[in-house]
Structures are given as C-alpha cells and as structure tokens.
Amino acid sequence: MLAGARSLLMSLWNVDDAATQELMTQFYEGLLEDKDRSEALRDAQLWLREQGYHHPRFWAAFILVGDAGPLPKTNTFEA
After folding, report:
1. What does the pLDDT look like over 15-50, one tens digit per residue?
2. What is the spatial distance between Cα 63 and Cα 59, in angstroms, rounded to a whole number?
3. Whole-angstrom Cα distance, residue 58 to residue 72?
4. Which residues are CB-contacts of 23 (< 8 A; sequence separation ≥ 6)?
5. Which of 2, 38, 40, 49, CA to CA, is 20 to 30 A from 8?
6. How many CA atoms lie within 13 A of 69 on its CB side?
7. Local structure of 62: helix, strand or coil
C-alpha cells in the first residue's frame, strides 16, 4: 500500500498451490468481466468450492485489503 497499490489480495496462511492457481485464474477472469474486486474474489471462492475444494483451508485464507471496487478503465490487461 505504501508503494501506491490501491488494493492487495493476500492469504492469511499457507495455501494449496493447485487450489490457489485455480482461484487466481477465476479471480482475474472476473476482473476482466468488469466485476468489482470483492465480487470477483467471492465468485472465485464459490467457484472453487464447486470444483471440489470444499474445505475452507483452500479458499478462506484470501482477503482483499483496500479498494474493493472495479479496476480503473485506464488500466487494462489481457488474459
């Protein structure tokens, strides 16, 4: 945040690599669909549960700190 980031997505504990990869892929796909950051994270967590990662240790560690809104339109990226 001191370096100028508007928000951070972080984990509260060590997480499974495969589950994290899937969650992050879904999270960024949500951002590409112009979802709010918080909505993209929630949807990714719910999606991960539907994929068989039912236990919270796979998805509950992730928190969003800072701006939870959509990405600014001037910052674009490609998947």
Report:
1. 999 999 999 999 999 999 999 999 999 999 999 999
2. 10
3. 29
4. 44, 45, 47, 48, 58, 59, 62
5. 49
6. 5
7. strand
The model's confidence at residue 78, banded by pLDDT at 50, 70 and 90, is low
42: helix, coil or strand? helix
Task: Report how far residue 11's alpha carbon sits from residue 60's, in angstroms, rounded to the nearest whole number.
Answer: 8
Which residues is 63 bridged to in the sheet?
10
- For residue range 49-76, list pLDDT tens digits in order: 999 999 999 999 999 999 888 888 765 5
Residue whose pair of structure tokens reads 């068989």 in the numeric block = 52
